[in-house]
Specification:
This protein has a single domain, classed as Dimeric alpha+beta barrel (Alpha-Beta Plaits, 2-Layer Sandwich), CATH 3.30.70.1060. The chain is 29% helix and 27% strand. The chain is built from two helices and four strands. Strand 2 and strand 3 form a beta hairpin. It is globular. The relative contact order is 0.27.
Length: 98
């Protein structure tokens, strides 16, 4: 199942919070390479974040979110998706090493 997380960043980004971001971005990149997280987006004003996650159920989504240290500083909602369409122009073509 696919879920989208809509998260609201705190009004004030403390130094402690800023220190968590690099490690969490590394974790997000790892989860993306494992195809657990499909996308991670932030609004231009840096107040909202959207994360598209593949998980068995909402409990697994919560586990994934708890694995990110920044989560305790966010207000977020989890929404189960009925479907997701993706433009084929975003697909990276495969190539041959021959």
């Amino acid at each position: 199942m696919q879920y989208i997380i809509e998260a609201e960043m705190p009004e004030v980004l403390s130094e402690n919070l800023m220190d968590l971001i690099p490690d969490d971005l590394e974790k997000v990149q790892q989860l993306m390479s494992e195809q657990v997280i499909y996308s991670y987006s932030m609004s231009a004003d840096q107040k909202r974040v959207w994360v598209l996650i593949e998980a068995e159920d909402e409990e697994e989504v919560e586990d994934i979110m708890r694995g990110l240290e920044i989560t305790e500083h966010l207000h977020y909602e989890i929404h189960e998706l009925a479907f997701m369409q993706q433009s084929s122009s975003f697909n990276i073509p495969s190539f041959s090493l021959n």
